[in-house]
Design goal:
Pathway: Carbohydrate metabolism; tricarboxylic acid cycle; succinate from succinyl-CoA (ligase route): step 1/1. The protein is of the alpha/beta class. It has nine helices and 14 strands.
């Protein structure tokens, strides 16, 4: 088992023929992902040789689904075209759209997120500005390195791409059921809470590691949800303990106002919900290791 992405997932890549799309299509294929097609209206009907694998290119997501049965799209298109690409995926009712693109205008994200809701939330959106998700040994949709961990029983949900990789590496001897990078923008599709519930429902996930960061109130809301709905042990880490007050940091969502949104406030909210919170990624990995025994 895994969440959102399994060995049976059939993946298409919107923007596959661009340089980033091609680079990561190559890496996804090498890690065992079943990539069944790319989407580029200007190259529809052609095939691309990716290290010996012939991948067909379709003119639209709908056409790709009809031809291949695809149920996941990974989106590598420039920010200006991302909204149109995601709306196309939603219109085609693909079950999962993974939006890797960084720098998508927040208004565009709010627009396609609301559009998905109007269409009945038939398409789960992960991202934007995220590394995607991986179920080790099964499938990899995005840019997460596949060789830093193995299959195991830890579920990981993270706002930060690099901290996703670090946590996977630090706990690589134990392994992960799935790791989901949800992205750090102010507006995102899949949230901590969505992933927490999915891991709660997954029989092959024993403990959950949740990585947040300063700014906003997503971690506080997750803490409240954990208190009410999650019975599996949760270990947390909040990036930004050493961030200077009053300064906007890194990710677009990492804006601290007053005491709200600070790492300490988030740590306290999570601990009040029974979550063990590490002060560093390594300490967080150690807490997870102790819990899994």
């Amino acid at each position: 088992m895994a969440i959102f992405l399994t060995k049976d997932s059939k993946v298409i890549v919107q923007g596959m023929t661009g340089s980033e799309g091609m680079k990561h299509t190559r890496r996804m294929l090498a890690s065992g992902t079943d990539i069944v097609g790319g989407v580029n209206p200007r190259k529809a009907g052609t095939k691309v040789d990716v290290d010996g694998t012939e991948v067909p290119v379709f003119g639209s997501v709908k056409e790709a689904i009809e031809a291949t049965g695809a149920d996941v799209s990974v989106i590598f298109v420039p920010p200006a075209f991302t909204k149109a690409a995601v709306i196309e995926a939603i219109d085609a009712e693909i079950p999962l759209a993974v939006v890797i693109t960084e720098g998508v205008p927040v208004h565009d994200t709010a627009n396609f997120w609301a559009y998905a809701g109007q269409k009945g939330n038939k398409t789960r959106i992960v991202g934007p500005n995220c590394p995607g998700l991986i179920s080790p040994g099964q499938s990899n949709a995005g840019i997460i390195p596949a060789d830093i961990t193995k299959a195991g029983r830890i579920g990981l949900v993270s706002k930060s791409g690099t901290l996703t990789y670090q946590m996977m590496y630090e706990l690589s001897d134990i392994g992960f059921s799935s790791a989901v990078g949800i992205g750090g923008d102010p507006v995102i599709g899949t949230t901590h809470i969505d992933a927490l519930q999915a891991f709660q429902d997954d029989p092959d996930t024993d403990i959950i590691v949740m990585i947040g960061e300063i700014g906003g109130d997503a971690e506080e809301r997750a803490a409240d949800y954990i208190k009410k709905h999650i019975t599996k042990p949760v270990v947390g880490y909040v990036a930004g303990f050493t961030a200077p007050e009053g300064k906007t940091m890194g990710h677009a969502g990492a804006i601290v106002s007053g005491s709200s949104g600070t790492a300490q406030a988030k740590k306290e909210a999570l601990e009040a919900a029974g979550v063990k919170v590490g002060k560093t990624p390594s300490e967080t990995a150690r807490l997870a290791r102790e819990l899994i025994g």
